[in-house]
TrEMBL record:
Coiled coil: none
InterPro entries: Cro/C1-type_HTH, DUF5753, Lambda_DNA-bd_dom_sf
Gene3D superfamilies, alphabetized: lambda repressor-like DNA-binding domains (1.10.260.40)
Protein name: Helix-turn-helix domain-containing protein
Source organism (scientific name): Streptomyces marokkonensis
Entry-linked CDD domains: HTH_XRE
Signal peptide: none
Pfam families found in the cross-reference section: DUF5753, HTH_31
Every HTH cro/C1-type domain range: 18-72
Length: 285
């Protein structure tokens, strides 16, 4: 697989194009499903990029949509072929949030609100190990080790010399006080956050306790944005047994406005660094 082929993004772009062709034809997903003798849910999953799509599926759909330009058909079939390749994360086996990793790998910018813990891209190994073990107490040591390695591998996006991920993180103050692992682990973790926050493409703000009720009161979420105009922004909400991906413009806009409120309610960048530094020193005592 070529290094610049991201199967998750290929699948998503292909789904968007198939949806566009269906809408141009004036057909509903239910009508298409009837024509192909498949379930409506299959058509929906193909269009939202959550399901692998075969070249045969593309050929059949193009037939239903009466696509006459063979170059378009061949292009879509190539995208289907690329989308069935494997990203680097597949080498680690079954990863519950593999769709998210694929999106994060291709994203240009990422905005995160994290109320409970230091967000994954900023975690040290010791902190990540404690988080994974605490969050998955019934998993095997081997399984937890794999999850830690995947998390650390993801961090290459913010340390890359060329086109690093633009990261903006709002951390609830509670995440800084929650002792994960040990006080030593926390001291090293907060020092790591301070170090990374010095990078020009990483911004960290702390939402202080004194704010009270705020725009992120319902929990963690992330907003991913992409350089290619064909790729719409995605809101990602992590769940215990399943994750939620929101792509409709009005949903993305609502969460974007919420994020702007969170940024406004948070300490500014310098005040946030000062608080993180003070707490890191407290952990060293």
């Amino acid at each position: 697989m070529a290094s610049n082929v991201n199967p998750t993004v290929r699948r998503r772009r292909l789904g968007q194009e198939l949806r566009r062709l269906r809408e141009l034809k004036g057909m509903t997903a239910e009508e298409v499903a009837e024509r192909l003798l498949v379930s409506q849910s299959k058509i929906s999953r193909l269009e939202n990029g959550r399901r692998s799509i075969s070249q045969r599926d593309v050929r059949d759909l193009c037939g239903v949509y009466e696509v006459e330009d063979q170059r378009i058909v061949e292009s879509l079939m190539q995208m289907a072929k690329d989308s069935r390749q494997q990203g680097w994360w597949h080498a680690f086996g079954d990863i519950p949030y593999s769709v998210y990793i694929g999106l994060e790998t291709d994203a240009e910018s990422l905005r995160v609100y994290e109320p409970q813990i230091i967000t994954g891209l900023l975690q040290t190994r010791a902190y990540a190990e404690a988080i994974v073990q605490g969050g998955s107490p019934e998993s095997s040591g081997q399984e937890n080790d794999k999850r830690v390695e995947v998390r650390l591998r993801r961090q290459s996006r913010i340390t890359a010399d060329k086109d690093p991920l633009r990261l903006w993180v709002v951390l609830d103050e509670g995440a800084l006080h929650r002792v994960v692992g040990s006080r030593q682990v926390m001291r090293e973790q907060l020092e790591h956050v301070m170090e990374l926050s010095q990078l020009p493409h990483i911004t960290v703000q702390v939402l202080p306790f004194e704010v009270g009720a705020h725009a992120g009161i319902n929990g963690q979420y992330s907003i991913l944005e992409f350089a290619d105009a064909a790729d719409s922004s995605v809101v990602y909400i992590e769940g215990v047994t399943s994750d939620l991906y929101l792509e409709k413009p009005h949903d993305v806009q609502k969460y974007t406005v919420m994020y702007e409120h969170l940024r406004a309610q948070s300490l500014n960048v310098e005040q946030s660094r000062q608080l993180v530094e003070r707490l890191a020193k407290d952990y060293a005592r």
